[in-house]
Batch of 4 targets.
Target 1
Amino acid sequence: MSNLFNKSAHELIGLLNQKQITSVEITESVLDRIDNVESQVHAIVTLDAESAMESARRADEMLAKGESRTLTGIPIIIKDNMCFKGHRTSCGSRILENFKPPYSATVVQKIQDEGMVILGSANMDEFAMGSSTETSYWGPTRNPWRLECTPGGSSGGSAACVAACESIVSLGSDTGGSIRLPASFCGVTGFKPTYGAVSRFGLVAYASSLDQIGPFGRDVNDIALALNLICGHDPMDSTSAPVEHPDFTTFLNKSVKGMTLGAPSQFFDKIENKDVENVLVEARRVFEDLGVKFVELSLPHLDYGIAAYYIIAPCEASSNLARYDGVKYGYRAKNIDGMIDMYCKSRADGFGDETKRRIMLGTYALSSGYYDAYYLKAAKIRTLITQDFKKAFESCDAIFCPTAPAPAFRLGEKTDDPMQMYLTDVFTIPVNMAGLPGVSLPGGLSLDGLPIGFQLISSHFQESRLIQLSSAFQSHTAHHLARPAL
């Protein structure tokens, strides 16, 4: 079965349990696929085939002894900002070019305990700062659907891996849309859980109050399996919520008749792309045929989300990235003249332009005399956005809206215009500002064949509603089954 790389996780689990295939066979199939297409896509930063095969052999032993768990033997790729003990974790940056952490992130440890096969790490925008995976020190990732286009960012490598069938599932992180935007651009399912639902211990921080780990999969069935694994309280993470999570697979294939979706005018008024509009109209029709009701909503402070985000996130980045100074680990400049010169040269040489731009923006906003004018006001807007969502959920089970303003754009198209790049996240940022869960589902293709996703958002720790709605949609459509012609 040479095409095992093309199957979903839940399909492979069934074949493994029936002893029709082995984890070694799955892993070999995926590694062969990587050999065939990775040179075109450039989605992977670090590939460790030898370690992956050893993990696959251990998984087969677990299966033979009856010690396996749900996802045992399934290959996965993790974003390059999740610590993996003894393996390079560079965050797409020169400053961590050769960094190998002495411990693993909680999610990585859970993956290993499950008996999954970690293939390596996926490319990303440097320190997760970007919307196109073009700021990576290792070079840009290309969209498997059209190689001259971006896969989105910052988790572009994680999304492209799944779309190109270089991994069965993957993990990304989402600070302002970094899972949902690539999912939309690459035609896969991407899920951003509630802030605090998944441990951030071992996730290299960009903006600590916004970052959240989440999965990419071929369909929502795979997402439910991944969420069952990674969600849960972690005493090692002070922001991890002590909340009991249900078995998300029990919400698959459930009726959605009588459920209500809200359609906020502030989202839909901004749609200018006809292909995006057509996808949303068709998706709404599918939900209505399933018995879902729609209500019009207003989120009056949504328009301030982008401005507030690009104060809060850079401020937190300025603080989080201060530790990279060339002293204890990471890149250190050569030919230096004293300690201060070492700091300056190491940071100037080690960080890319976009990362330096955001560090400077955040440092300025936090500086004496400007804190109240910028950061404090942004924090107040964040509270108002959260309250808007809370009120909206009084009249609906979830919110229905676009993921991105347009399909994937061409590589290099927006790199010289940071404002246009930032506006790519206009529909995803409010979800992070309020700490809500959101999912991007494949909704169709543009007239010229590029994937377009749409977004569902629910209230805090109501991931199960999103699983239920997503499953119903994918049970009655085939958009998630489409594959790029690589």
Target 2
Amino acid sequence: MTQLDQLREHMQEVGEISQIEAASLYKVRSLTKQMSNLRKEGMSLLSQWKTDITGQRYVRYRFLGWA
């Protein structure tokens, strides 16, 4: 199963993911690129900027459905 397949399945089952989660679960180095590929397939995703407890900002992607 490719990383894209794993991410597609994850988003449909869990509904959201961050770069840290993608890296640790699926060894994804460029989540932005993979999310772009999923959008090209017709997946509707919301990108939300968040801040962790240390003040670091990151993007969390949320699955909204299929276009």
Target 3
Amino acid sequence: MQRENNIGFNIRRLSNYIKRDIEKSSVSQKIDLPKGVNGWAIGYFYENREKQIFQRDFENRFSIRRSTASNILKTMEQNGFIKRVSVENDARLKRIILTDKAVKIHQDIMNDITNREERMRKGFSDNEIDAFLSMINRFITNLEEQDD
């Protein structure tokens, strides 16, 4: 099979283009997130800000080990993106809360994502986008089935 017709190769190429676009965006240049800390983590905490989120929730959501999560959260705390606050009924548990700085970054990231999505969807109908997303989800399902 030629590379041009290889699904994985082309998805990887697309992923590389998206990664480069993110890295050169004004938001990425402005916020300069440390390695290991990314907008996905900030987005997760933002979307769940009304809930009590703990490290184990973060570990489960991103399928990462405790040590990895601990390092990411430690870096985020050092950079002023989160605070860990003790819970009233159990001082050992620390709820993760975004700072105002991180909320502003999240808003900038969401604007950047919206802009990128608009550029990527240019020239495609809603039906084409739906078909593409359906195929991507089926690819993922097929690979997950073999991963079990």
Target 4
Amino acid sequence: MLWKEIERLERDLNPWREFERMQKHLRQLQKEIDRIFSNGEFPVSGEYPPINIWTNGEGAIVTAELPGVSPEDVEITVVGKRLTIQGRRKADEVQEGVRYHFKERWDGEFTRNVELPFNINADAVEAKFTKGILVINLPRAEEDKPRKIAVESA
């Protein structure tokens, strides 16, 4: 009898129970927010396209995921330290009499601006597009490259 009473008190006075309840409500709220903002105009995950950037003394390499985007629908511009990737993902063609049952893949225009830590030689930028991955090679501007200074003895 005493043991059952202790178990009941433990269950009723559990300080973590309220946190678990709040966490459940937060998950439901997040699902609702995702539903509201996933109307097909923009991806829910945030910035688009997702990118990776590697830098060294010579420049930077940027990779961007652009599945479903044609290379001719992508425009890259460089001004000083700023890289801009713009483009458009065309909507899927839907036959007459057919409507979406579920739509997570968005379509439309996108712009991604990235500020690099150095100026870019815009005349030497190269870009390749393979299997939905855009790879941009951004050489550092000569005047922005670190220079070794020879030290002479007096």
